[in-house]
Amino acid sequence: MSFFQEENDEYEDVSTVMVRNSHLDLMDQDILYHLALGSGSHDLRAMFGDVKFVCMGGTPKRMEQFAYRLMEEISYKIPTGTTLQDISRYSYRYSMYKVGPVLCISHGMGMPSVGILLHEIIKLMFHAKVVDPVFFRIGTSGGIGLEGGTVIISDEAVDGTLQPHLELQILGKTVKRSSVLDKKLQWELKSLAEPDDPYPTVIGKTVCTSDFYEGQGRMDGAFCDFTEEEKMEYLEKLKFNGVRNIEMESLAFAALTHHAGIKAAVVCVTLLDRLKGDQVKFY
């Protein structure tokens, strides 16, 4: 938890976050619609200028619980008479909590959802003139040859064909953006693991898909046009190529943070070993 104990005492005049859009300069204000914030309606620098870390996870409830746990871990005290509140509650889409220099945000499920959020969070960092923020995606995944409960730090995010880039269709053309994650940050996170942790922590590739069922080789969806042998051949191929888990957000997360010049990491826990089954139990 030492990552989250660093604070920014003075605000800088210019953000280090790269927003590659000159059209924003022509707008009266930038409305961050899905966050229920705006550059004209809110003093974003006063609200978020001290942010050093942005932690993203799937569900609103999960990130609320993470925010409360973070308060305990870094001994953060909310001013008397106030409570921890969802800053984006009126967007009815994402939830966002601020604990000192840390933003805790739900990103929803899948690359489209995390992509929309990242566009607006990157712009939020830019408008707030945040300097050198570090972004984390924390979540769940299916392990490849690893039992449930294993913590995996992604050293590379790749698509289902093992390509390390995000493909976007923009104005009818395919645009590729490299999905790069910070190597030094990966090993800094790995160094936090203790020998007596009740779970193993490993570094490896993460496959990111656009679907939970067929895209991840599951045979328990509404549709399945492949055999058990074909499924196992694919999963074994992933394992052979250094893939340690499968999820649905890392590719977009890595590509967009890298495009904005933001240091980022993906840390996920496995719910099961996909070489042994498909279904995730909730009990």
From TrEMBL:
<feature type="domain" description="Nucleoside phosphorylase">
    <location>
        <begin position="52"/>
        <end position="273"/>
    </location>
</feature>
<dbReference type="InterPro" id="IPR035994">
    <property type="entry name" value="Nucleoside_phosphorylase_sf"/>
</dbReference>
<dbReference type="GO" id="GO:0009166">
    <property type="term" value="P:nucleotide catabolic process"/>
</dbReference>
<dbReference type="GO" id="GO:0004850">
    <property type="term" value="F:uridine phosphorylase activity"/>
</dbReference>
<feature type="binding site">
    <location>
        <position position="216"/>
    </location>
    <ligand>
        <name>substrate</name>
    </ligand>
</feature>
<dbReference type="InterPro" id="IPR010059">
    <property type="entry name" value="Uridine_phosphorylase_euk"/>
</dbReference>
<feature type="binding site">
    <location>
        <begin position="137"/>
        <end position="140"/>
    </location>
    <ligand>
        <name>phosphate</name>
    </ligand>
</feature>
<feature type="binding site">
    <location>
        <position position="93"/>
    </location>
    <ligand>
        <name>phosphate</name>
    </ligand>
</feature>
<dbReference type="GO" id="GO:0006218">
    <property type="term" value="P:uridine catabolic process"/>
</dbReference>
<protein>
    <submittedName>
        <fullName>Uridine phosphorylase 2</fullName>
    </submittedName>
</protein>
<dbReference type="GO" id="GO:0005829">
    <property type="term" value="C:cytosol"/>
</dbReference>
<feature type="binding site">
    <location>
        <position position="218"/>
    </location>
    <ligand>
        <name>substrate</name>
    </ligand>
</feature>
<dbReference type="InterPro" id="IPR000845">
    <property type="entry name" value="Nucleoside_phosphorylase_d"/>
</dbReference>
<dbReference type="Pfam" id="PF01048">
    <property type="entry name" value="PNP_UDP_1"/>
</dbReference>
<comment type="similarity">
    <text>Belongs to the PNP/UDP phosphorylase family.</text>
</comment>
